[in-house]
Amino acid sequence: MLKVNKLKMELDKKIILHDINFEVAEGDWLMICGPNGSGKTSLIKALSGQNPYTGEIEIYGSNLRLLKSNQKAMIFGVLDQHPGSDFDFTVEELVRMGRYPHLKGWFKSWTDIDQEVLERVLLQTNLYQKRKRSVQSLSGGERQRAYLAQLFLQDPKLLILDEPSNHLDLIYEQNLFRTLKEWLQQPGRSIITVMHDLSLAKKYGNRALLLKEGHQVVFNDVSKALSSEKLNSSYQMDIASYLKEKYQQWQ
């Protein structure tokens, strides 16, 4: 589905990413991990076309640079780490925007089928009762779920998520990852997620890309890429011992 070859990014004459190479197949859930400043968010901004880069990004064999905006919208769904809007939309109005690439006709008419999908997504993300609320009145976690609902309504082939569980209570975090896992079961779908929580990365991902200071440490199956040896190299600390100590009171 996605192939990245010799990707390099430079901002303000500083190299942010060096020679990044990986692939995403249909059904993959790729976790992008690494300490702060390793280039995780910069990488997904390149993948989503938000930042310039050198090297090649191919999607279904086509050069990303050659795709039109509507083509990208049918393939990519992107959730930034801190999504926000200056406009006072209701939750329903915000989520409805995700359906635009699928609307038919010159005037992009809204159909009964579109409405059915919208209501299903609002229920799926526990926002149905808040659909008439202003987005500006929502808590951080509720707003995060509203933007996720917009992505689900967009129904792309590839979700690109930057820390999607930010601001979420544990019950919503659990529901989110269960929902994403179910979404991934449909044919022709993949997910790329930037993750700080290595436990969630190992629990849900099947592939992982580990970064350090803009360099690729390893790209492999999640158990191999997030091994103690590789994590210690990237984070410069004994990750496994720290996490075992951190969570031992729950055993």
Kindly describe this structure.
The chain has 251 residues and is an alpha/beta fold. Helices cover 37% and strands 24% of the residues. It has helices spanning 40-47, 69-75, 91-96, 112-124, 140-154, 170-184, 198-204, 222-225, 228-235, 239-247, and strands at residues 2-11, 14-24, 29-33, 54-59, 62-63, 76-79, 158-162, 190-194, 207-212, 215-221. It has a 6-stranded mixed β-sheet with strand order 6-7-8-3-9-10, with helices on both faces. Strands 2-1-4-5 form a 4-stranded antiparallel β-sheet, with helices on one face. It is globular, with a radius of gyration of 19 Å.
In total, the number of strands is: 10
Largest sheet: 6 strands, mixed
Computed over alpha carbons, the radius of gyration is 19 Å
Looking at CATH, which topology would you report? Rossmann fold
Overall shape: globular
Q: Work out the helicity level.
A: 25-40%
For this structure, what is the CATH class?
Alpha Beta
Strand order of the largest sheet: 6-7-8-3-9-10
Q: If helices are DSSP runs of H or I spanning 4 or more residues, what is the number of helices?
A: 10
In CATH terms, the superfamily is P-loop containing nucleotide triphosphate hydrolases
Overall average pLDDT:
88
